TrEMBL record:
Residues 1-30 form the signal peptide. InterPro entries: Cyt_c-like_dom, Cyt_c-like_dom_sf, Cytochrome_c4-like, Cytochrome_c_Oxidase_Subunit. Residues 40-127, 137-225 form the Cytochrome c domain. This is C-type cytochrome. It comes from Massilia jejuensis. Keywords: Electron transport, Heme, Iron, Metal-binding, Periplasm, Signal, Transport. Gene3D superfamilies: Cytochrome c-like domain. It is found in: Periplasm. Pfam families: Cytochrom_C.
């Protein structure tokens, strides 16, 4: 009768333990991946937005985007009353090659996903301040583009995605109403140039628009509420 050697039996036992450990680890990992994210805490988001985190060298968001997300700097977007899921997605996108910005990429990478969600939740419930169109000579062109698009160029009406009053569509499309003209134009140009690539739809549409058309629709959007 053949005997099983002790070293051989020990090796089989160790291998079995290793396989079992890997299996359990896989199950635990899958469970963790399926676990829903914690509900965003707008109060914590407010603290981070208003005070930043000095220990990490993270400045207060309001230093660039204004109190309650109402930026007074034309090149920095207004964030108040923005759709929560959209703000969170942009903060995530800033950590990828799809949306690179020297300032925002740096700070977005410092935030945990929970912090991104908290800030987004805070901004979503902030009251926005009304903007205004400034160029009376182009406001009608802007209105036509926003509401009807540019048929001969295959540019869809902005309203078809962003809503009649530019309030956006939750999860899918951002609120645009009252946004600074300079910021909106800059984003349209970034989409056109390929500097911003986190929306295939906007890249396609922006590539079909002239500078004048971008400026006209941006000015019209600024006056929407």
């Amino acid at each position: 009768m053949n005997r099983v050697s002790v070293p051989s039996a020990k090796a089989v036992f160790v291998k079995s333990l290793l396989v079992a450990s890997l299996a359990l680890g896989g199950i635990a990992g899958a469970a963790e991946a399926q676990r829903p994210a914690a509900k965003p805490d707008a109060a914590k988001g407010a603290t981070l937005y208003e005070s930043g985190d000095g220990a990490r060298g993270l400045p207060a968001c309001l230093s660039c985007h204004g109190a309650n997300g109402n930026s007074t700097i034309a090149v920095n977007p207004k964030l108040s009353n923005q759709i929560e899921a959209y703000t969170h997605k942009q903060l995530v996108d800033f950590t990828t090659p799809q949306r690179v910005n020297p300032v925002m990429t740096t700070y977005a990478k410092m935030l945990t996903d929970e912090e991104k969600r908290n800030v987004a939740a805070y901004l979503a419930v902030q009251k926005d301040k009304q903007g205004a169109a400034k160029n009376k000579d182009t406001v009608e062109l802007g209105r036509k583009i926003y509401r009807g698009g540019i048929g001969e160029k295959g540019v869809a009406a902005c309203a078809s995605c962003h809503g009649a009053a530019a309030g956006g569509i939750p999860i899918q499309y951002p609120r645009l109403a009252g946004q600074h003209q300079d910021y909106t134009v800059a984003q349209l140009m970034a989409f056109r140039a390929g500097a911003r690539t986190n929306s295939a739809q906007m890249t396609t549409l922006a590539q079909r628009m002239s500078d004048a058309e971008m400026k006209a629709v941006a000015d019209y959007i600024a006056g929407l509420r």
